Protein 1
Amino acid sequence: MPSYILQPTHRHTYKNTEKHRQVYVNIHIYTHTFILNWQSFNVYMTEKTKNEVSIDLVENEIIAGQELHGIISIKYNGRFDSVVINSQIENSNDIFNYVTVNGKKMNYPYARLSMFKEDIQNNRNKLEFTAITTHKPAHGSTNGKFRVAIVQEHKEVATDLAFVKIKN
């Protein structure tokens, strides 16, 4: 895992005292996701490029009523409690309904689906899902977004996004 050392920039005032160093670190913690290793005082940044979690959609474009298939791969080695899948359709209150997860049929009428770690590990850290929407775009097409997040103690530790185009 690469380490990132926090260095002062010309945009921030920085004084060589412990109090100001702490303020500087707090500013960056709220603008990025960091994991702090206090023994060696290294700061590790978690971001999508590490591929700790990924979401892939089989279809790039769908029409209303067509099934959308997705695969979530989890390669996160740290502790986590659950995996959350969120879906949104831009400029709309419509949602995707999840109809299957790992081959099990369900009718989940909410945009957010949460799965516990224990349920995922039985499937070798892979989730396969099918979602469907009744959304009909008003003008040509609309974009849909799926976001997957790994959650540890109410905090997201890794995320990924995937997009689909919904056509008339």
Note: The chain is about 10% helix and 45% strand.
Protein 2
Amino acid sequence: MDDKIDDIKPINSLIPFTKSISVIDLSEGEELLSKNGFFRDLANLLETEEFNTFFHTHMNTMDEIKGSMVYIKLYDSIKQKLPLEVIEDKEITKKIITVMLHKFITNSEYRGQIIETTMDFMEQGKNTDLIEVISRRILYEKYLKTGIVIDTDVIIQAHQEEIKRLRKMKKKGNIIDM
């Protein structure tokens, strides 16, 4: 029995890793942090206690990561729509955006459209006005359900966007022709 234990290969431990740290050229790290904005921003973010608490609490699975990113994107999009005098007061801004975000996500009638639109935005890397697109989609959904036209231009634009979205889904194989 002892022979079998001796045959087990040791699991890589931190000891070899810590030994390899000593051969890292710190000037290379310094140069990366000074010249590469992504690594600098990433390192600064990951060194904050607030982000680490959020990350370890709310981003453990891919679904949690996607959900958190939807909230982050919506939060940022709402903030961009607020008047400058509101944004200047950070505490008021947080409260306003939190209430609006909560209302977006807890509205069972529109939640699906809001999440789907935000996910589409993130997948496509769009830089257009997310809140405007969400508004058009919601108005378009209302039009489809009720036939009531609130703004013909908005309905036409939303219809065109929906056609584009369906075409992209078809290209990805997410829609099958009947």
Note: Residues 1-8 have pLDDT under 50 and may be disordered.
